[in-house]
Amino acid sequence: MADTTGLLVNAAACAFGFGVLHYVLQQLAQKLHPSDGPKARHEWANYVISCGQAAISGFAGAMGLLFEEPFASAFYQVCAFYADIDTVHGHSTTLKVAMPIILGYFIYDLLLAAVGCGAEFEMLMVLHHCLCVIIWPISYHYQAGCFYVLYMMAAELSTPFLWLVVYFLPKYKVAGSAYTGLGLLMVLVFFSVRILPGPALLKSLLASQSYWNDVNRVVYVLAMITLPLPTLLFAYWFSRILGGMFAALTSDKKDT
User: Fold this and answer.
1) Residue 243's domain spans which residues?
2) What is the pLDDT of residue 122?
3) Which candidate, 146, 164, 139, 156, places its Cα nearest to that of 219?
4) How far apart are the C-alpha atoms of 179 and 250, rounded to whole Å?
5) Considering only CA atoms, which of 28, 41, 162, 167 is closest in space to residue 112?
6) Number of other CB atoms surrounding residue 45 within 10 Å
7) How far apart are CA 50 and CA 201, in angstroms?
8) d(C-alpha 180, C-alpha 113), whole Å
């Protein structure tokens, strides 16, 4: 219990730290973009923080998934579609160190949206953040399904590429072949880390059923309800990304 309490305290401290950093970046934005209004400055600071924490959290999650046992072995088995895989058990030092950063970011992001600052928030993003803040500490506390938490952290590696193309390039008027090339790279990265693993992860939920027998029943039910959701959510976001890229490419052709 003390371990989980420490994680939550650290997450709250990270949320406060992100709030302080947001204020500093907002002041910087005022000097870099003097013509921007307060909302635009809040938005710029929010996206800078989002990209930074995603790079850190995504790298940590990927390292835990690839090199930390028993998760590295389980990851290979999931990718190979083994019929019997223990993706349930295992203590992760990576999560202990890195999860407070991303949980703190989610808390900061939700609070920012609640007071009407930062980037525009849709309900699916609110749901995503809330589920992560609630479910991930439960998974960590019961040491059940930490493999999936590591994967979802690793999936954050696509976020800097996404905001680069969706927000920063348009803001700084980057267009033409540079925008198209970086856009295609973003699509490739998003597909590789969020879409391609989907079928194997869903299959692993079936392949790991016998290993959930010693897990608290409420935790098991929560896991079975929530673990398939990211795959569906990622597929929906990917369809929107493809639609946006197609619209941008056809618009460029019309302009020329």
Assistant:
1) 2-255
2) 73
3) 139
4) 13
5) 41
6) 24
7) 25
8) 30
Please check whether residue 165 is in contact with residue 187, taking contact to mean a CB–CB distance below 8 angstroms: no
Mean pLDDT of all residues in 99-113:
94
* 50-102 confidence digits (pLDDT tens): 999 999 999 999 999 999 999 999 999 999 999 999 999 999 999 999 999 99
pLDDT band, residue 127 (cuts 50/70/90): confident
Who wins on pLDDT, 248 or 149? 149
Q: Could you count the other beta carbons within 10 Å of the beta carbon of residue 77? A: 19
- For residue 253, the model assigns a pLDDT of 57
Sign of torsion over alpha carbons 179, 23, 135, 150: positive
Residue 230's nearest CA partner among 132, 126, 108 is 132
**Number of domains into which the chain is organized:** 1
Task: Kindly give, in sequence order, each residue whose CB lies less than 8 Å from that of residue 22, ignoring residues fewer than 6 positions away.
Answer: 42, 45, 46, 49, 108, 112, 118
Cα separation, 141 vs 207, whole angstroms: 23
Q: Are 55 and 160 in contact (CB under 8 A)?
A: yes
Distance CA 56, CA 46 (A): 16
- The answer to whether 71 and 90 have CB atoms below 8 angstroms apart is yes
Q: Which whole-number Å values give the CA distances from 219 to 119, 137, 142, 202, 254, in the listed order? A: 33, 11, 8, 18, 53
* pTM for the full predicted model: 0.92
DSSP three-state, residue 165:
helix
Q: What residue spans of the chain are helical by DSSP H?
A: 2-32, 38-67, 71-79, 93-114, 123-142, 146-154, 159-163, 169-171, 176-190, 198-207, 217-226, 229-255
Q: What 8-state DSSP symbol labels residue 212? A: G
